[in-house]
# Entry
Amino acid sequence: MEELVQKLALIDELETWKEYSQGFSPQDKKLAFERAQALWIARKVSENALYLHPDVISDLQRQSWIPNDLQKRMIWASVLVSAEGVRSRERFKSIKNSLINRYGRDWWEDVYKRQKPAFAAKERIRKQIASNGAAVNMLMANTHLFGEVARDQITSALSIVPKW
# Structure
């Protein structure tokens, strides 16, 4: 069971978790998903790959990375804007159908509405990193002072995402 939790926490595509949990009882799956979810959220935040307002991230940390309903909507919006590549449209449709089936159309529409600011934050972070250049990015990754500057840039970009 612990092996499943660790494995799920390392998979970026949340919507594929059910494929990795075949053969487990419904109770074990539910428990594994809940435990893996908290680990996944903590990992994505540490990688700066979860596009949530800094206050929401602080709240999640205080909640031991266990999201409430509103925070789940924000997380799913972030997951949607993170989808890239040739399968992104197919993945979007799959996630949409899954969320509608599980939570209903109103819930999905709220997630959909939250995508735009999350995408704007993602693009702002991406552009900042690209404009820094390799040498500056290396300094940011390896020094405390420049690391603080990088964190401030990310916090500033994430602040455009609504916290409610």
Remarks:
- The chain has nine helices and no strands.
